[in-house]
From TrEMBL:
GO terms for biological process: fatty acid biosynthetic process; lysine biosynthetic process via aminoadipic acid. One of its GO terms (molecular function) is holo-[acyl-carrier-protein] synthase activity. Residues 104-202 form the 4'-phosphopantetheinyl transferase domain. Residues 12-96 form the 4'-phosphopantetheinyl transferase N-terminal domain. PANTHER family: L-AMINOADIPATE-SEMIALDEHYDE DEHYDROGENASE-PHOSPHOPANTETHEINYL TRANSFERASE, PHOSPHOPANTETHEINE TRANSFERASE. This is 4'-phosphopantetheinyl transferase superfamily protein. The keyword Protein biosynthesis does not apply. The keyword 4Fe-4S does not apply. Keywords: Magnesium, Metal-binding, Transferase. GO terms for cellular component: cytosol. InterPro entries: 4-PPantetheinyl_Trfase_dom (IPR008278), 4-PPantetheinyl_Trfase_dom_sf (IPR037143), AASDHPPT_N (IPR055066), P-Pant_transferase_sf (IPR050559), Ppantetheine-prot_Trfase_dom (IPR004568). Belongs to the P-Pant transferase superfamily. Gsp/Sfp/HetI/AcpT family. It comes from Roseburia intestinalis.
Length: 224
């Protein structure tokens, strides 16, 4: 996980730009808002940083170069049989990534306020009832937790928003399917990585994630 704020500095932004792919550079240049450009840069850097920990890279050089391809719903995956699966997410001033040897999804969100109408529309009845009761949590925090759990699942399976959000339930540590057509065992974990944000991960393994913060200095040390 990383903070995009340092990349708001034009000198730092320019210094880090060579360490992302040309495709991402082109995407960044098309973005109008500075914050969006910083998020995209940070996401590219986070991905490259993690891949180099595995001894591979998306850039030409000494390490084995890999390439990204995209699934039917736009989920990025590495080409070839690397055995490395990943997913990225961003919200507000933070970008998060998750890496695994099996399919995985992640979603980080800034805590949203007053989202009961959204929950009524998209959550299954069991989730909506739990949200109304609060389960000893503030409604805004609890909504965001449930939303990130749902997002992490649909990103893990690569189906995007085409999947009916009310067709599965995320109240427990394992996704519960409510309609036919979905299979497999998927496990959920939620975290409070920093004040005002919720992060959830969906994976085929019921294991806790270790959240590692990557600073601007760590990027610099890795790349320069």
């Amino acid at each position: 996980m990383t903070d995009i704020v340092p990349f708001g500095d034009e000198k730092i932004f320019a210094q880090m730009l060579p360490f992302i792919t040309e495709d991402r550079k082109n995407k960044i240049m098309q973005l109008k808002k500075k914050e969006d450009r910083c998020r995209s840069l940070a996401a590219g850097l986070l991905l490259e940083y993690a891949l180099r920990e595995y001894g591979i890279s998306l850039l030409p050089g000494k390490m084995q170069q890999m390439y990204l391809r995209f699934g039917e719903k736009g989920k990025p995956v590495l080409n070839g049989k690397t055995g490395i699966h990943f997913n990225l997410s961003h919200s507000g001033r933070y970008v998060a990534g998750v890496f695994s040897d099996e399919e995985v999804g992640i979603d980080v969100e800034q805590i949203r306020k007053g989202q009961m109408k959204v929950a009524e529309r998209f959550f299954c009845p069991e989730e909506y009832l739990a949200l109304q009761k609060g389960k000893m949590k503030k409604a805004d925090c609890y909504f965001t937790e449930l939303w990130t759990r749902k997002e992490s699942y649909i990103k893990a399976v690569g189906k995007g928003m085409a999947l009916d959000l009310a067709s599965f339930c995320v109240l427990q540590d394992q996704v519960k399917f409510l309609k036919a057509g979905q299979t497999g065992e998927w496990y959920l974990q939620s975290y409070d990585p920093t004040s005002g944000y919720i992060l959830s991960v969906c994976a085929k393994k019921c294991t806790k994630c270790e959240i590692q913060w990557i600073s601007k200095e760590m990027f610099t040390q890795k790349f320069i």
